[in-house]
């Protein structure tokens, strides 16, 4: 309760100070009638903060356990960063804030009509309070994740109330409060809070599986200061205390405090300066050019509307804490945990993704776990009495225990029966079964890059010799290996955009300085039928191909990439590669498509033997669809079957047929990874 109280007091008094200075300045200059505009900005900012808090609660509840840990870690990091920034900023700026804000009010009031001045004041109050309110959302979420019950909310509310009272005092006293000492000591304390949050972030990252170093327990105080004790609970919520922290958690806690101390020393005050409460009181005057007209008539209605928004924000935030679910994943199963048992205690579910809605109907904060022996399969922690939480988990067949509140309570039983998806996963080949296909595909890609570089070098030689016909032949020959590996290389955006960029994707089309590679040469060799200026373009194409050659030697593919890259290539072809020709001058798109088909077929059929063992009918369908597309391409060859027709002679109907066959192929290949358990 103390940590949220101090945070909300600190953030609240910062907002109250700013609003109080603005209000006091208006009153001193005889413009009290403008005060309602400030309240509009304050109420709008409060409602925004409440709605953001509700949205974050709804978002957080939809995450599975591992993602929830990531979410908590990110919120904690944001909170630590903002806390640190605000402590340092207030240490530096507390003395000069009055003069800066009075100048800003003058600027906001400079207007020819009341409307502009009204919006200026609303905007100032809104952004002053919204900044503190939105920061408080992140701070309190991080604190609430390490606290439970009503202590934290009540502490936060008490901090806001005290800050509001201080704001009223600031207003009537004309901002004569010495804030240096207040911010100095509370700032140091909040840095300790931030250090505890950062230590908790490291714990979240470990539970999310992202951090596994320095996990040796530094010390164990569970015997004399357990987390469950009153003092342990207070210290846990206040400073992130843990009864048995790891070496990494202690180390990051200490390093943060050292770094914060250094920053505080570097931003220390130099030389004597008069404190804020000694500011000399001078008669207030209205600066020349500042509007003194009455505020807009609609301000009163705006106050009513803003107040209603705040009420709606409170309702949304409360509703989110009680019912926030987010989108459900899999079947939803309700579990009610009472003081000595769960309802139900024993149940059976099919394997797969399942979401549990865990309601805490007991009198104490609890965690609900699914256990496989002594190992935790999944869990949801810190469910406060009267609240509920969601846990999404992918269940595997087996018999598991479930905890029901206290560790001394009887445990329930969860029986997970096999399902179609779990059977497919069970049939998944072992990892070592993919070593051969991956190695063979790697060799295939390296051979294609070697052929690409070789043909480009021959192309350069033909250009140097002034042989246009040979240059055209080598350009076409170089396209084949590149298109065979396009399913992999096409996803390397930097290299693909240098080697195979199309003019339609450039701002100046073919006149764009970035128009290079294959298609720049294509225009010169086939469109202009000229070798002039092509030597430099061919040289750069070779350099880019050599860079690709080196990159592919280090390229690592996962088992799912074998079929996954083919799906990506097929979808790319379906979207534009068939209906919109790529080779506008060479008209060799059918040869490109044949090379694409060769490359896709190579990678997919490398797992054909594995697929036959897992799902033989699908393996047969995949082969049939590859053959159907090949037959359609063969029908578009010249009479002697030695080459393809120019793409300009391919009718719209034939293109649509090719596109449909590619789509059907993609649909079958898309099923390969799930069939092999590679989802």
From TrEMBL:
Keyword Signal: yes
Family classification: Belongs to the EfeM/EfeO family.
Protein name: Iron permease
Domain Imelysin-like residues, every copy: 448-666
Coiled-coil region: 531-558
Pfam family, one: Peptidase_M75
Organism (species): Lampropedia puyangensis
Entry-linked InterPro entries: EfeM/EfeO_iron_uptake (IPR050894), EfeO_Cupredoxin (IPR028096), FTR1/Fip1/EfeU (IPR004923), Imelysin-like (IPR018976), Imelysin-like_EfeO/Algp7 (IPR034981), Imelysin_sf (IPR038352), Iron_uptake_EfeM/EfeO (IPR053377)
Membrane topology: Multi-pass membrane protein
Location of this chain's protein in the cell: Membrane; Periplasm
Segments traversing the membrane: 6-26, 38-58, 70-90, 119-144, 150-175, 182-201, 221-241, 250-267, 298-320
PANTHER family in alphabetical order: IRON UPTAKE SYSTEM COMPONENT EFEO
GO cellular component: high-affinity iron permease complex; periplasmic space
Residue ranges of domain EfeO-type cupredoxin-like in the record: 310-416
Record keywords, A-Z: Coiled coil, Membrane, Signal, Transmembrane, Transmembrane helix
Domain of life: Bacteria
GO molecular function, one term: iron ion transmembrane transporter activity
């Amino acid at each position: 309760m103390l940590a949220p109280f101090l945070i909300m007091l600190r953030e609240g008094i910062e907002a109250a100070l700013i609003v109080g200075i603005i209000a006091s300045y208006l009153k001193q200059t005889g413009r009290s009638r403008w005060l309602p505009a400030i309240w509009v900005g304050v109420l709008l900012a409060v409602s925004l903060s409440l709605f953001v808090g509700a949205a974050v609660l709804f978002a957080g509840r939809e995450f599975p356990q591992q993602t929830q840990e990531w979410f908590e870690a990110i919120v904690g990091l944001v909170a630590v960063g903002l806390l640190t920034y605000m402590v340092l900023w207030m240490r530096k700026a507390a003395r000069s804030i009055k003069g800066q804000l009075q100048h800003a009010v003058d600027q906001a009031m400079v207007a020819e009509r009341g409307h502009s001045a009204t919006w200026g004041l609303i905007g100032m109050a809104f952004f002053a309070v919204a900044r503190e309110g939105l920061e408080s959302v992140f701070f309190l979420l991080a604190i609430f994740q390490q606290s439970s019950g009503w202590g934290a909310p009540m502490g936060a509310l008490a901090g806001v109330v005290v800050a509001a009272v201080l704001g009223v005092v600031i207003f009537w006293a004309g901002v004569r409060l010495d804030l240096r000492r207040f911010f100095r000591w509370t700032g140091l304390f909040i840095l300790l809070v931030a250090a505890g949050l950062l230590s908790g972030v490291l714990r979240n990252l470990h539970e999310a599986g992202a951090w596994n170093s320095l996990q040796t327990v530094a010390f164990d105080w569970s015997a004399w200061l357990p987390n469950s004790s009153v003092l342990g609970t207070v210290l846990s919520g206040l400073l992130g205390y843990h009864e048995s922290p790891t070496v990494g958690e202690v180390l990051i806690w200490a390093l943060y405090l050292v770094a914060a101390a250094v920053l505080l020393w570097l931003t220390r005050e130099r030389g004597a300066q008069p404190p804020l409460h000694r500011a000399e009181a001078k008669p207030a005057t209205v600066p020349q050019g500042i509007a003194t007209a009455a505020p807009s008539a609609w301000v009163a209605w705006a106050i009513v509307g803003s107040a209603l928004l705040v009420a709606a924000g409170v309702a949304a935030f409360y509703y989110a804490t009680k019912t926030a679910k987010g989108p459900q994943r899999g079947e939803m199963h309700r579990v009610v945990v009472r003081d000595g048992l769960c309802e139900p205690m024993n149940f059976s579910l099919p394997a797969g993704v399942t979401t549990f809605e865990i309601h805490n109907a007991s009198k104490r904060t609890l965690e609900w776990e699914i256990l496989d022996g002594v190992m935790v399969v999944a869990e949801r922690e810190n469910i406060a009495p009267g609240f509920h939480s969601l846990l999404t988990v992918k269940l595997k067949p087996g018999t598991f225990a479930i905890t029901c509140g206290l560790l001394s309570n009887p445990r329930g039983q969860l029986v997970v029966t096999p399902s179609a998806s779990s059977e497919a996963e069970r049939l998944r080949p072992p990892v070592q079964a993919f070593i051969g296909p991956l190695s063979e595909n790697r060799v295939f890609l390296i051979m294609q890059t070697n052929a690409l570089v070789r043909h480009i070098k021959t192309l350069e030689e033909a250009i140097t010799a002034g042989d246009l016909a040979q240059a055209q032949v080598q350009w076409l020959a170089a396209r084949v290996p590149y298109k065979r590996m396009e399913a992999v290389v096409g996803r390397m955006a930097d290299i693909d955009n240098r080697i195979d960029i199309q003019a339609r994707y450039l701002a100046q089309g073919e006149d764009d300085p970035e128009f290079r590679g294959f298609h720049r040469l294509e225009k010169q060799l086939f469109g202009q039928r000229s070798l002039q200026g092509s030597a430099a373009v061919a040289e750069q194409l070779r350099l880019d191909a050599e860079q690709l050659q080196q990159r592919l030697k280090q390229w690592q593919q996962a088992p799912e990439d074998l079929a996954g890259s083919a799906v990506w290539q097929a979808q790319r072809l379906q979207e534009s590669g068939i209906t919109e020709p790529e080779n506008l001058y060479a008209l060799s798109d059918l040869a490109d498509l044949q090379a694409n088909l060769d490359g896709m077929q190579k990678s997919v059929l490398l797992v054909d033997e594995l697929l036959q063992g897992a799902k033989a009918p699908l393996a047969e369908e995949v082969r049939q669809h590859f053959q159907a597309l090949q037959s359609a391409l063969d029908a578009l060859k010249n009479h002697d079957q030695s080459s393809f027709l120019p793409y300009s002679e391919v009718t719209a109907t034939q293109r649509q047929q090719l596109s449909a066959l590619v789509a059907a192929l993609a649909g079958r290949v898309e099923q390969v990874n799930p069939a092999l358990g590679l989802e």
